Amino acid sequence: FPAFPWDGGLVLRSVLAMNMEYVRATQIAATVGQGMAFLFGFIGLFSNPFLLFIAFFVWMGASQEASMVQMKNALGGIPVTRAMLTDYETVSPRDTLSRVAQLVLAGSQRDFPVVEDGRVLGLVTRDDFLKALTQHGEHWPVTQVMHTNLPVLDSYEMVEMALMRLQESGVPVLPVTHAGQLVGIITPENITEYLMIRSALRAAVRIPVM
Hints:
The chain is mainly alpha-helical. The protein is built from eight helices and five strands, in the order αααααββαβαββα.
């Protein structure tokens, strides 16, 4: 059955992709897969309730796969330097949670790279900061709270890679470096905002001048 993203649906996408763009082929295969899911669900209502579960997972899988392909296509060829934050705060390995509290209250930034001589040593996230503050108080050193061994992005890498590493690492922000020196930070929110702005600019270009 061409129930994308099962094997039959993947074969359908491959065939379609021979004659059209990959993203368009994925959208069509996903639509066919969701149609199959609807059919499974309808049959399941009158015969085998187990088909309802199959229908649900096929529908969700097709939707998620199509969204992921569209996202990757939108992010293709965009360097992280275009989407990263360059106005941000950092903390020193000699700082305590008191300094982090000051920065949190002073602005909208929630997660802070721990930096010494321009090099990233770790990351203090808001959740870990609040937990440590509750357990140990404001004089607890940030080095006891920070995440270490973070995947670091180089400034020449692409936004697609940044999003993948954010998802794999499980941290809300990653540092961006150039020649080992911190030059920015990037979050999923930055990436989303960049795509929204780029989409708005493209729409503005298409608007005819009266």
